[in-house]
Amino acid sequence: MIFVLHTNYRVVQIIDANKRTILHEFVGKNITQVIMDVSSISSEDYIVWCHTNFKFNLNYDAIKNIFHHNRVFASFNPCENDYLPKEIGYVERSYYLKLKKNVTFPTWLMSSCVGGVHASVIQNLRKELQPNNNFDFFLSSLAKRAMVEGLFCYSEPKLLTENKKNECAINQASIYTLFKFVKQHYKWVWVFFLAFSYFIYQRRIMVLPLIRSLFYRKLSTNFDLEKIKIKSSRQVINNREIDVIIPTIGRKKYLYDVLKDLSKQTLLPQNVIIVEQNAKPNSISDLDYLATETWPFQIKYKFINQTGVCNARNLALSEVESEWTFLGDDDNRFDAKLLESMFNEVEKLGTKVGTTVYLQQDEIQTYLKTAQTSIFGAGNSLVKSSLLSKVSFDKRYEFNYGEDTDFGMQLRHLGEDVIYFANIKITHLKAPIGGYRTKVNQLWDNDIVKPKPSPTIYFLYNKYFTTQQLQGYKLLLAIRLFRSNRFKNPFSFVKQFKKQWNRSQFWSIELTKNSDA
Which of residues 116, 148, 167 is at a domain's end? Predict the structure, then answer.
């Protein structure tokens, strides 16, 4: 372990794990270049940087657990503002900007205040890195590009023993630097969108930053981190016992195939918890095979005359007994090593939440690297059961969309990450029967003005996006709707869109008032 102390991006001192001063020749030099050079000298070490303002609060005891495998990249910014201005939200569509700073949280927003990375990461990517950049720019650029390629990036408050906001040391990037960052890390069109957003929401004309940004090229994301093998030092598995939950409605044959796939598992589940829904009064189950056939696991079964997948999943989750829970669906197909393979990945990565490849039969997998993801699949995910007492499927999303994304965000707000297992596949048949069998009346169905977007989507984004992200989404939605608007009258369109957006906002508030979630 090597610790690099700096002030104003200049190295002040370098110490080893025994807190002895080493590498005197790097004192006074630019920290970005020093991190690059030290990674060559000590390629098997973790390199931790810390601003001198926080050196007495550096949590040496937590370092080993934070960097539990060699592809963890973590930092922490105790300041109110991040290096990149909040307007980055105009173009960023992930859930990685609105940080929850009191827990470990996935993000590519890195900080020079305190952080660390294994030297092998820098060595493997050094041809694609730019040491002449400002250190904060360098860190966020590295994380932004490498996160999707299998670098595990976090805001990690445990790096410091206490939050020292009054000693913050972040110099925020200029607007010119923001435009440069967007041009180098997003498709070229987004710098124009950024400039347009400034004009719409701040009445500021960004001609010069826009023009200057056009001279920069987009940076490569063709990173190969597979040479850095992952073997987590965290023990998250006490036993490989797992329950499977499956909500079902009107899919007798498909559910039977799922149960058969489960019965062939090399690692059998302890319990399969099925909640069958049928809204017809006095209806009864037609899942006769649950009783007439012998299954190599216990089946815990509930039949309810209430539809709604959020309610059904919550009922199933309340019946879980095992250390782990697999959230499944009634029209999935998978091979005999599904559960065993998921446990192998959990053990390797040291994660408590994982989600699989989830494609329909005619789809081709395009994302091939195990990595962090902002997605959570409610029909194809593994969760440690101890977390389930703190989360639930929010009924405000019932018969709409967004409940699985919200569930995943609840887990992230507990300090857990969601990892995409690129080598584990489940086929989602998207059965043409079942699902929402009857028309469900929404609160806004009789509204004269049709809300745009769906109120549940507005509710989701308003909850987990920054203000600028929500504004950026609003502008992008307006542009897309205008392009598909056959009347092409911009003034009448803007007037109508504002009404629709306001109604979406209104009904999202009503959802909160009328929910027992």
Answer: 167
